[in-house]
Design a protein that fits this description.
Length: about 220
């Protein structure tokens, strides 16, 4: 048995026991595929991890940068109380349209809102609204801008908030200090920012599974 097949089998086992899907989640994946969206969303195990992280955090407000079809958004929004708030920023109007339908079908459209446009344009507008600090920020958008997204997350959070950056391993390419590829440069910049910023304490974890070899970074805002 190949290594990747073993990873898939283990993921299938854990997901079936610990994070089984339901009609809303299955429909979200089905609609994403039907709309031709890329299969780059989180797995069910990763979605459940995000949900648990939000619950452990006692999150009432969540900011997501990168919506895709809203699959991770559903997991996160389900962690919030009835008066909680999730704002998800999505570059593509096509992706956002699918996500909005998926959230409505899951009964989460009163909690979760999708805003369309480049995140680096949407974030200043959001800041101008002077929202309550977000308890958790999930960053899963274009990797070249990861450091910028972390900087904005810092502006929109408070001491004790958690910031998660997905897909930081880049298939191992993140270790290549000489890489000029935008996704690697952007991800390394985000890791350096987390490492050196006086308001952040963080780490990064490598993962294997249905989405191959990857990983995520998680940081806590200190002050």
């Amino acid at each position: 048995m190949s290594g990747s097949q073993l990873w898939d089998d283990v993921d299938d086992y854990f997901i079936s026991r610990l994070s089984p899907d339901d009609d809303a989640l299955r429909a979200a994946l089905r609609d994403s595929e039907a709309a031709g969206l890329p299969p780059i969303g989180v797995t069910a195990a990763q979605g459940k991890f995000l949900q648990l992280l939000a619950q452990v955090q006692g999150a009432r407000t969540v900011l997501e940068i990168g919506t895709l079809a809203g699959y991770s958004t559903i997991w996160l929004a389900r962690a919030l109380p009835e008066d909680g708030r999730l704002i998800s920023l999505e570059y593509s109007a096509k992706h956002a349209e699918v996500a909005v339908r998926n959230l409505a079908r899951a009964g989460l459209d009163r909690v979760a809102e999708v805003r369309v446009g480049p995140a680096l344009e949407s974030l200043p507008k959001l800041a101008d609204e002077n929202p309550a600090p977000f308890d958790l920020v999930f960053i899963d958008a274009d990797k070249a801008n990861n450091a910028h997204y972390v900087e904005w997350a810092l502006r929109l959070t408070r001491a004790g908030s958690v910031i998660v950056v997905d897909n930081v391993v880049r298939g191992g390419r993140v270790a290549d200090a000489g890489s000029t590829e935008p996704d690697v440069v952007g991800t390394r910049s985000a890791i350096d920012l987390i490492a050196n910023h006086p308001r952040l304490s963080g780490t990064a974890i490598q993962t294997v599974g249905q989405k191959g070899y990857d990983g995520f970074a998680v940081a806590r805002v200190l002050a």
